[in-house]
Write a structure and sequence with these properties.
By secondary structure, this protein is α+β, with helices and mostly antiparallel strands. The protein is built from 2 helices and 9 strands; from the N terminus they run αβββββββββα.
Length: about 140
């Protein structure tokens, strides 16, 4: 659904019809403008982060969470190399806990710990921006 931001009031119907963004949007929001967060009341109040896609003129939603719910974990993972042998390299995972949905989602995965720490820093900065931007009332 195309939404012209300056001319349209964001309603509950628009949020419910919006596409759900991919998890990497938590770290990289190029071509997106942050609108804020909203709450859809119901049996379980659901909170969403609202992003406006500048190229497609659409609203994209992400599940809401706070910056304190992120964590980096590490696990070795079995992979096959070029020679047909198995390797067990260490991978780092950046996870975000979503209290509304009572689950964690994978934001990114890498073999480099520094890259994960940088991604976690970007994630926390984004979630703080969401807090500062405030709530959009539907």
């Amino acid at each position: 659904m195309e939404v012209l931001l300056k001319k349209t009031k964001i309603t509950k119907s628009i949020v419910q019809q919006s596409l759900r963004g991919s998890n990497n949007l938590f770290v990289d929001q190029t071509n997106y403008e942050l609108l804020g967060w909203c709450m859809i009341p119901g049996k379980n109040d659901v909170r969403w982060i609202l992003l406006y896609n500048l190229l497609k003129s659409t609203v994209v939603v992400l599940p809401y969470s706070s910056a304190s719910h992120s964590s980096i974990t590490r696990h070795s993972e079995q992979t096959r190399n070029d020679k047909g042998w198995y390797d067990y390299p260490m991978f780092y995972y950046l996870n975000l806990y979503l209290p509304t949905f009572r689950t964690s989602i994978l934001i990114s995965k890498s073999k480099e710990e520094e890259k994960m720490e940088e991604s976690e820093k970007k994630l926390k900065e984004f979630l703080e921006k969401v807090q500062n931007k405030g709530q959009v009332y539907l």
